[in-house]
Amino acid sequence: MRIGALSSVLSVLGFSASLVTANNNSLPTIEIEGNAFFNSETGERFYIRGVDYQPGGSSNLTDPLGDIEICKRDVPKFQDLGLNAVRIYTVDNTQDHTECMQMLANAGIYVILDVNTPDSSISRSDPGCSYNADYLQTVFATVDAFANYTNVLGFFAGNEVINDQTNTDTATYVKAVVRDMKKYMRARKYRQIPVGYSAADVTENVLLAAHYFNCGDDDDARIDMFGVNDYSWCGQSSFQLSGYSIKMKSYKNYSIPIFLSEFGCTKVTPRPFTEIGAIYSTQMSSVFSGGLVYEYSNEANNYGLVQIDGEDSVTTLQDYNNLKTEFQNNPNPEGDGNYSKNNNVSTCPSFESGTWEANNTLPPMPSAASAFFSKGAGQPMGTKYPTQFRCGDANISDYFRVSSGSSSSSVSNSQSSSQSSSSSASSQSSSTSTSASRSSSATSSSKSSSKSKGSAVIAVQVPTVFRAFLHVWNYVL
Ligand SMILES: *[C@@H]1O[C@H](CO)[C@@H](O)[C@H](O)[C@H]1NC(C)=O
Ligand SMILES: *[C@@H]1O[C@H](CO)[C@@H](O)[C@H](O)[C@H]1NC(C)=O
Ligand SMILES: *[C@@H]1O[C@H](CO)[C@@H](O)[C@H](O)[C@H]1NC(C)=O
Ligand SMILES: *[C@@H]1O[C@H](CO)[C@@H](O)[C@H](O)[C@H]1NC(C)=O
Ligand SMILES: *[C@@H]1O[C@H](CO)[C@@H](O)[C@H](O)[C@H]1NC(C)=O
Ligand SMILES: *[C@@H]1O[C@H](CO)[C@@H](O)[C@H](O)[C@H]1NC(C)=O
Ligand SMILES: *[C@@H]1O[C@H](CO)[C@@H](O)[C@H](O)[C@H]1NC(C)=O
Ligand SMILES: *[C@@H]1O[C@H](CO)[C@@H](O)[C@H](O)[C@H]1NC(C)=O
Asked: What is the distance of C-alpha 175 from the center of its chain?
């Protein structure tokens, strides 16, 4: 194990640094070896004990890490629950996250971050078009905004982009994004933060997806970690009954860390969370590295642990107490949990029409985006920046213009509103609800359809306000 960031910083800066950082330590980075996570300072195996965190629900683009009041309200609850990680689905890359990231670090909590926004992500209806230089700019600007925090455990390049049997072709583009993010971090000399994919539990293709994202000769294109959204353990279930035992067998040879990026079936409520006893035991530790409960705040779909009362208070629900008790009663397995150090990368699944339609040859990165590798991503564009329908290369000089902050004539609005009212958003929603007929996990998919962030299921907002410098938006097509 390498010496962690904290100790090297302290040893370089010496005594005065330890005074200044007395309450503001950075956390040791989490590193990957074989199919497990490790604390880079102590060498201990790291199991994710987390919650999914999107206060306000999936259609609310409030960045919970951009508002210190929200963090002051929620971080003490995370600590009380015994968490070491939260997953955030959307951040605003124009905001300053320093205070919240520091507060989380002080509480020993890592962040797993989805780099997409509903409007800026790979689209199921036209994935090739949505994979464009403007989209990569938003992804890279989010990487810029978080790369320096040692408590970023990893990034998700996509969430549930494949959500039924008709859109496996999208994987090609998500994998291209994985490749581009990893190359970007190297080019910018950032820490190589792990990049993963969070998969919907689609029985027919989740394993194909796991192998696809972890196959091939290009190290950059392979994910570093795989998250499965899994709602198969309901109420007082068991390792056998839930199907966890089958998943253990299916993923036995997988070479990188896997964890449950969402779990917590609500067919039985209040949820007893007895799966915690299985997840953090030697029954599963050789293959799985913990997971994240869906979800912290109670929203319309009723998956919450707390009810948000306002800016400064929440009411804890019975699920909260049950989860806290289960975490307390189930410490991590001793030692290394029998992880696998030397499993081989996966074999690429072959193209099969109607079953697995991802291409093992990835598209090249849109050429304009290569400027970001040398210059950085430039001006971050925030959450209301639709890129899905901008096929091709951008005029990236727009991102490097000095913003005057003066008034905008909103010239580009006609274009952006036609984009967001495009019929593809609704065709995507309907393809999402088709998957609700999937028998094995109806709860999961009905939940997914109401909150999916992986692509433009949500297209309610009509962007009307653009930054001043964008009003002369040009394309190189
Ligand atoms: C989004 O959530 C924040 C707090 O989490 C809340 O203040 C705001 O009203 C919500 N906005 C919408 C549009 O629901
Ligand atoms: C330490 O972090 C907290 C947030 O957790 C912040 O309020 C405080 O100002 C920081 N202190 C220093 C000395 O940076
Ligand atoms: C990250 O930290 C380094 C060293 O402190 C600093 O030079 C750089 O500007 C920071 N990068 C970002 C994107 O904040
Ligand atoms: C795992 O690998 C072993 C040895 O290579 C092999 O026999 C077994 O079939 C594999 N299991 C799965 C589920 O792929
Ligand atoms: C770990 O694996 C070894 C060898 O396969 C086995 O003997 C041991 O019982 C396992 N330990 C646990 C805790 O599963
Ligand atoms: C990995 O692949 C090599 C070469 O194909 C093979 O010899 C080895 O047994 C494999 N390792 C495992 C753990 O399956
Ligand atoms: C995969 O991509 C390659 C290169 O772009 C292309 O030639 C090939 O036709 C694609 N295969 C399929 C099945 O789409
Ligand atoms: C790109 O934008 C810059 C600055 O607005 C402009 O000077 C240049 O002509 C544009 N290039 C193309 C190919 O549109």
From this structure: 14
